[in-house]
Amino acid sequence: MAPPDAQGGRAVHVTHEDVRRLCEFIYRRTGMLFDDSKRYYIDRRIAERIAATGSESFQAYFAALRSDARQEIEHLVNAFTVNETYFYREEHQLRCMTSHLLDDLLLRKQSGESLRIWSIPCSTGEEPYSIAIWLMENWSEVDRHNIEIVASDIDTRAMKAAAEGIYGARALMRLSPSLVDRYFVRLGDGQFQIDPGLRESIQFTHVNLVDLRQMATYRDFDIIFCRNVLIYFDDASRRIAAESLFDCLQPGGYICLGHSETMSRISPLFDVRRFPDAIVYQRPETLHDRS
Amino acid sequence: MPFIKRETAGQADAATAAAEAPQLAALQDFDPDVRWSAARKLGGVAAAVPALAHALKVEQNPRVREAVMTALMRVGDEASVRVLLPYLHSQDAAQRSAAIEALQALPEVVSPFMTALLDDADSDVRILATELVRNMPAGEATRVLGDLLERELQPNVCAAAVDVLAEVGTPEALPALRACAERFRDTPFLPFAIATAVARISSAG
């Protein structure tokens, strides 16, 4: 196969066996399985990455990938996944939160104690604002509790954008017109800005998920949304991140991962909880559980 | 995606190092939550390796054991690797998996131990050792596994090596692969696996 060069350069020859080799690498790293039925999709992505890295051959590209030169693993995984973020993405987890998780968490709470929810990484803010909007719209108890939403990312530019809360229509595609009217201000040119009150209700912070000292300052969360980030880490980094996230949760707290991630592949620390809407992971009440 | 990869192996956490002594004692606390916290805080502290090694021997709580293994991985020096290596012999699959995962993160420190691991009397350890080779540079991985294929008598170990070579092997592996297929021609699955690996390596364009 000589896939088309996405950037107009010389096409690099890639064989069927090369493709299988790369797909096995992706599978071992991420759990994402690509079979021959997706061959055209795969070929395009490989060609794009070979062109983008200026690799002279598939072997040169694969060597760079294995050594993670210039974070190529991240770039490749990005090429193979849909990274576009938007409001109410993975809505089933939000439904699970209001249908099951919050009721369970409130059983452990003292009267007046806040519920703490963490969105990490929060990227440009679609996720934490979605959590807030979903709670306002779908949880009848919302006005009876103090809810603290913290949104964190390592990318300060993304966080600045999140705090500004300005989005195009595409990011709002899953929201009904009435929700858009209620929670956004139209700016013109197809731009919408999150209602100022909602913007002020979310605390944006800068944090690196694998910086243990930074992570040690985040504690007592009831729910953590940590979606589509661990997939980029190698096994060892996932272990470290999973242990940090464990410490950031209250005993009995929940963590929601992206749809292609499973905590059982990452760490045996959490209990798997299967709810009708989603599979989530729970920190046990105490480590005595499995002694 | 902007997240930075894990901290460099061996990078000590200054804040936890200052509080090292109480944490060493806490590793032996009766409360597993306290032991867990202690193990977390001692990650990356080279001076804590003997205490972590002892904790790993006596710890019964699987979650705390996980944290101790991660702490040793974060130290990432020769002493911590020497502590982790014997767990490749463990009868407990979770311990073996945790040990291999930790060791895979330390390819340069593990490298001097590879010859002994690939010569281990226990074929299961040799199979696990082939996984450690997967993270080595392609040339070195090819040489190490090519040598293994020339002397290995256990077909399952050869199959594990072939699986790794299919991903990372260079054409220098082809003679050893073909010789291995010939040697194990009466073990059908192995020549089949080798044919796949040979096709993959040969077709490298």
Provide the fold topology:
The complex is a heterodimer of chains A (291) and B (205).
Chain A: H1 16-30, H2 39-53, H3 58-66, H4 72-80, H5 91-107, E1 115-119, H6 126-138, E2 147-153, H7 156-164, E3 166-168, H8 177-183, E4 184-188, E5 191-194, H9 196-200, E6 202-206, H10 212-215, E7 221-226, H11 235-248, E8 249-257, H12 263-266, E9 271-274, E10 279-282
Parallel strand pairs in A: 1-2, 1-7, 2-6, 7-8
Antiparallel strand pairs in A: 3-5, 4-5, 8-10, 9-10
Chain B: H1 14-18, H2 20-26, H3 32-42, H4 49-58, H5 62-75, H6 78-84, H7 93-104, H8 107-110, H9 114-118, H10 123-133, H11 138-151, H12 155-168, H13 174-183, H14 189-202
Helix pairs in contact in B: 2-3, 3-5, 4-5, 5-6, 5-7, 10-12, 11-12, 11-13, 12-14, 13-14
What does this structure look like?
The complex is a heterodimer of chains A (291) and B (205). Chain A has 291 residues and is of the alpha/beta class. Chain A has 2 domains: 16-80, Chemotaxis Receptor Methyltransferase Cher, domain 1, CATH 1.10.155; 91-290, Vaccinia Virus protein VP39 (Rossmann fold), CATH 3.40.50.150. Helices cover 42% and strands 18% of the residues of chain A. Chain A has 12 helices and 10 strands. Chain A has helices at residues 16-30, 39-53, 58-66, 72-80, 91-107, 126-138, 156-164, 177-183, 196-200, 212-215, 235-248, 263-266, and strands at 115-119, 147-153, 166-168, 184-188, 191-194, 202-206, 221-226, 249-257, 271-274, 279-282. In chain A, the strands form 2 sheets. Chain A has a 7-stranded mixed β-sheet with strand order 6-2-1-7-8-10-9. Chain A has a 3-stranded antiparallel β-sheet with strand order 3-5-4. In chain A, strand 7 (221-226), helix 11 and strand 8 form a beta-alpha-beta unit. In chain A, helix 2 (39-53) runs antiparallel to helix 4. Helix content of chain B is 67%, strand content 0%. Chain B has helices spanning 14-18, 20-26, 32-42, 49-58, 62-75, 78-84, 93-104, 107-110, 114-118, 123-133, 138-151, 155-168, 174-183, 189-202. The longest helix of chain B has 14 residues, at 62-75. Chain B is elongated, with a radius of gyration of 20 Å. Classes of the chains: A alpha/beta (291), B mainly alpha (205). At the A-B interface, helix 1, helix 3 and helix 11 of A face helix 3, helix 5, helix 7 and helix 12 of B.
